Amino acid sequence: MSLFDLTGQVAVVTGSSRGIGRAIAERLAEHGAHVVVSSRKQDACEAVVAGINAKHGAGRAIAVAASISSKDALQSLVDRTMQHFGRIDVLVCNAASNPYYGPQAGISDDQFRKILDNNVLSNHWLINMTVPQMIERQQGSIVIVSSIGGLRGSTTIGAYCISKAANLQLARNLAHEYGPHGVRVNCIAPGLIKTDFAKALWDNPETVKRATVGVPLRRIGEPDEIAGAAVYLASRASSFTTGQTLVCDGGATI
What we know:
This protein is 45% helix and 14% strand.
């Protein structure tokens, strides 16, 4: 069997109706996993599910809308997944928000709280809701999609970077807590990826030029180029990998 075979596994991916999350959901399904597609809008989730099921067979994926800002909605996401599939083997915390661009001094308290709540606290909630049944089976993989922003400073997305740095530490802490129970926790740190979420950073050709001039691969990434990292961390190929941050940035941080 392939080290990357996910047959029989159940994966929940937040923020998976588009961008990086969608690419991850589609590739996990391609490698055999049953996938729960989740984002704020049910119709957007169902569109992704329709594509996965058409390609891999009816029932391979289901759609469960959930806002990461609502603890009740996240609990419903876990509960409905357990009711439908009976287990969660892989949790990918991908959804995030960034409502502010500019210097740290200009951010409002509400904007700062929203970033920390949606990008850190929601992951804490969802992991706590999911991990008990993983511990019971002594097996599971949790993947947090962070950012290279968590590894370096920024004058325009500072609060977002702070939240992403917190994700790296969340993974390290939880790797210690859950490792003895067979549950692994890791992060992916993408560089600049061509998604709607990051459009403000790549939509202008001059901005892209400045962002890539020092990058060894001389370009920005595509969502599907992050999905492989998620497949690796979800599968037994990474069975001895936990508490780590896998940087996928074209070499930007070297």
